[in-house]
Amino acid sequence: MRFTAKTKLVSIVLSVNLISNALVFYGVGGTDIIQLSLWLSISLALSYALTSYAYKKMDDRFKALEIGLLNFQDNEFSSSIKEVGDDEFSQLCQLFNEVSAKLRREKQNIYQRELLLDKVIESSPIVMFLVDNDGRFVYSNSAARHFLNEGKALEGFDFQQQMAKWAPSLQHAISAQRDSLFGLEHKGEQETWHLSTGRFTLNSQNHRLYLIKQLTKELNRQEVSVWKKVIRVISHELNNSMAPISSVSHSGSLIASELENKHLMLIFETITERIEHLNSFISGYATFAKLPSPLPKEVNWASFIAKLKTQVAFSFLGEIPNEPSWFDASQLEQLMINLIKNAHESGSSPQNVSVEVNRKALQTEIIIADRGMGMSEAVLTNALVPFYSTKQSGTGLGLALCREIVEAHDGRIVLANRKNGGLRVTVSLPNS
Q1: Percentage of the chain surpassing pLDDT 90?
Q2: Element (H, E) at 301
Q3: CB of 228 within 8 A of CB of 151?
Q4: Which of 81, 198, 278, 280 is most buried by its number of CB atoms within 10 A?
Q5: Which string of DSSP letters, residue by residue, matches 152-169?
Q6: Angle at the Cα of 180 (from 177 to 185), degrees rounded to 5?
Q7: Which pLDDT belongs to residue 31?
Q8: What pLDDT score does 427 carry?
Q9: Does residue 34 register a pLDDT over 90?
């Protein structure tokens, strides 16, 4: 219970009067009473002053502790209490300061982790957004804003109204309210995406989290991996069979030569010729199946283009980038030769076969264009698939090998017909 100064003074005066009356009652009077009363008054006044001083110091310390605890309630841990002496209250202040320092460190660590998590989510290519129980966006990362709303903020907007603007396949996948795959067309190419969704409680309210991830590259890599396994198995079996056939054919050719049997010699020569063709055919597939991982290095574009021109003919459009790029020069050279040769074989005149290099902030685009026959929709869909070829003697590995080289560089290759006839192949490679 707290007392005001006036209350304390009244208490002292009453105490003096009570003591004086008691002394009179017991026979002490006159000057003795006055002196004794004066002495008691002075003693009580001094006791009051000392008590008030001690009380004020204690009261200030209790107020500091109270303020510190109230700051804890507000998640503020910067308070500390001055420690004076070695009494119990000072020990309590020391404990308070230790707890405050520990909570301050924990808060800083949590803040740093939140910054890291926010950085990871913002830079993630996975589209991520959160919708509350009222059907409104409460969070979206950078990928979601660019994928769903042209880079603009989504927070606060109605989810259903925004969803009405999206592709039908995405709307259908979201309406199903379950994990699913769906397709989207991007730059003339069909892409595969995966939608993952789930409910959870945040701040005592129900929310639904949506995650959308592109799977085109992963599926392509898996597809190529399967093709490579098939090629390795077939190549192994064919090589095991071709070796004894080649040996028997050679022996038969020698015997036919000794017998001077021209008809038999022609048969064995034909067998040998077909074996050599088959070996060459198998070798091409083995190159695709055993393509080594790229070893990117800094490459100067002027030197690279000059060397490429000594091997195939083409017109270079625009300016050669001054800044170098990082890629495996030998593999990219092989890719460029394949694409430029295809352009020449498309029926295009040599002067209309062109190469263009555009170096941007994050990636470099290489465009190989011609004015040939172009491709039908069916051919465009399957052109990058191994074994698919429209040529009678083709292996169907040229463009598949190009795709494998590009994707091994974490890049992208896109084929598209040109407006006035011809084909454009765009190869996009990251700059680092």
Answers
A1: 21
A2: helix 301-309
A3: no
A4: 81
A5: ---TTSBHHHHHTTS-HH
A6: 115
A7: 59
A8: 93
A9: no
